[in-house]
Amino acid sequence: MSEVTRLNTVTEYNNMVGQETLHPLVSVVDFAKKEPFYYFRMQLGIYAIFLKDVKCGDMVYGVSTYDYEEGTLVFVAPNQVYGFADKSEKRQGKGKALVFHPDLIHGTTLGRNIKDYSFFLYEVNEALHLSTRERAIIDDCLEKIGYELEHAIDSHSKTLIVSYIELFLNYCKRFYERQFITRSNVNKDVLTRFEKVVDEYFSTNLPTELGLPSVSYCADKLFLSSNYLGDLLKKETGKSAQEHIQLKLIEIAKEKIYEPGKSISQIAYELGFKHPQHFARMFKKNTGFSPNEYRILN
């Protein structure tokens, strides 16, 4: 694995790509207007959104490699590692980037709601693929932010820039919802595989060894990020990934309650609960009966 370079500020990123710093906390880069430079693995202390026009090498994000498609948006949150696998020669980048420091949005509505934009924690292979009309909207948002950066900084600059970034991200929310819909067949396959992962987990000794299955465990098995899996399931079924796990847990618990000679505590431990009372509370919340009441009624 290649060495990772840390870039903490917008200015450091601008210096790396040869971009003039017009504002210390935000920058829009048009790579087509820049000199070729080496791509390398880096960890950013800032938010970054990359709009790629054409294939330009294998980008490594975490430990996965992803080859860009046309009109693709990739979102990177602070402290995530990303970069390019091939650094043997300089490359002419094509596309654009929007980078901004967390300090820019502190004290704003966007700053309070930034966690709602869960796609910042998606993997690169869960990138947003834009239609022609969507691409035009994204370009327009970037152009407006760029205009404000070229304008002399005044008392309105921060409000306008942050508003345009928020508008940009809200459009991306809409476009991701569209992508979930247009990829419905793929999503149904993910749902089927997700249920299989949960079933297989409970059919082994993993619950007693590791405890209850987590969303991150299931996502790893499906080669997805936890956020993407959760958003996909919510869009497809109306239930979160955690709710799906709980429903499967209750379904299996009902079967185990019928098994003769097993105490409720034993069932709880077999399912991965550290404390039987936690199992009892979850069971009653989902069924309206305690495990013992359910056993007697049935």
TrEMBL record:
InterPro entries: Homeodomain-like_sf, HTH_AraC, Tscrpt_reg_AraC-type_HTH. It comes from the Bacteria. GO terms for molecular function: DNA-binding transcription factor activity; sequence-specific DNA binding. Residues 196-297 form the HTH araC/xylS-type domain. Keywords: DNA-binding, Transcription, Transcription regulation. This is Transcriptional regulator, AraC family. It comes from Aquipluma nitroreducens. The lineage of its organism: Bacteria, Pseudomonadati, Bacteroidota, Bacteroidia, Marinilabiliales.
